[in-house]
Amino acid sequence: MSEQPLTIALSKGRILDDTLPLFAEAGIVPAEDIKKSRKLIFDTNHAHIKLVVIRATDVPTYVEYGAADMGVAGKDVLMEYNSNGFYEPLDLNIATCRLMTAALKGAKEPEGRIKVASKFVGLTKRYFAEQGRQADIIKLYGGMELAPIMGLADLIVDIVDTGNTLKANGLEARDLIAPISSRLVVGKAAMKIKHRQIQPIIDKLSEAVERRR
Ligand code: PRT
Ligand code: MG
Q1: How far is the CA of 159 from the centre of ligand 1 (A)?
Q2: Which ligand is nearest to the CA of 19?
Q3: Confidence of residue 91 (pLDDT cuts 50, 70, 90)
């Protein structure tokens, strides 16, 4: 019986560097070197499995709409996307970091309304609402560390790993919003229709994640 075709959307950038070795350990290997190619779609060592490599923030969109059957995305991106249009069956435990608030070192946070700069405006809005804190959220596309220095914001919400980027800019981490790692996501329709193809992939990846612990 021939296999139904299956498409997996991978986040490019730093998540991809961690994803490819994990997929290799799970027995899924691209037919050519993804990082040396300008192509966006890749065959693999399994005739029915294709990989597409796209912007991290686009992965949930492709999976929710069923254009890709499954995908790999950072929990930060999934929290910001904020949809229940897919399942999240596996924590891949790669590209780990923390989503945190940060401010100028030693700066007091204002009592009333605070200004918060982030590229994650949706999750930031929800976080401060849950905390019962009045916040004006300012959307930035990068270089969030600059915002407190320039007086644009009191706080930022950003990804922290070693803390070196904050430190180099005179900032300090304040509150942990969530620990972050990359997750396997599976479209709801795909999980029903292609369960026979998808479950073994989840199992193989899960075994690879466990072997690394
Ligand atoms: O274009 P943009 O930079 O917005 O995103 P991207 O598409 O280039 O994604 P990419 O390749 O930067 O990867 C982002 C994803 O990797 C995030 O969604 C996280 O899930 C994950 N990840 C893991 C990280 C980090 N670690 C990380 N350290 N994403 C970003 N950083 C950045 C952070 O933004 C900050 O500038 O690294 C800096 C902090 O690192 P430290 O070590 O100095 O604290
Ligand atoms: Mg980047």
Answers
A1: 6
A2: 1
A3: very high
- The minimum-distance atom of ligand 1 relative to the CA of 15 is 16
Is the CB of 162 within 6 Å of ligand 1? yes
158 Cβ below 6 A of ligand 1:
yes
Question: Residue 39 CA to chain centroid, in angstroms?
Answer: 22
Q: For the segment 138-163, what is each residue's pLDDT rounded down to a tens digit?
A: 999 999 999 999 999 999 999 999 99
55 lines ligand 1 (CB under 6 A): yes
Share of the chain above pLDDT 70, in %: 100
C-beta neighbour count of 83 within 10 angstroms: 11
Q: Look up residue 114 and give its two tokens.
A: 């605070």
Radius of gyration of the chain (CA): 19
